[in-house]
Amino acid sequence: MYECFHCLQKSVIWDSDFDFEDYGYDGEGIVHVCHCANCGADIEYRIRTDNQD
Ligand SMILES: [Zn+2]
Hints:
Layout (H helix, E strand, L loop, with lengths): L11 E8 H4 L5 E8 L5 E7 L5
Bound molecules: zinc ion.
Zinc ion binds next to loops.
């Protein structure tokens, strides 16, 4: 587990990974979805992999 940006507790749990396509985002990339077991925050990391302007 790692530290939650909101509550500062080491309570963040990784849920799963998705493609941008799964989320309906434009371009190519990966979405890492996590949540905080302490405060209940939903956390998304959106990483672009297409590298196009
Ligand atoms: Zn939290």
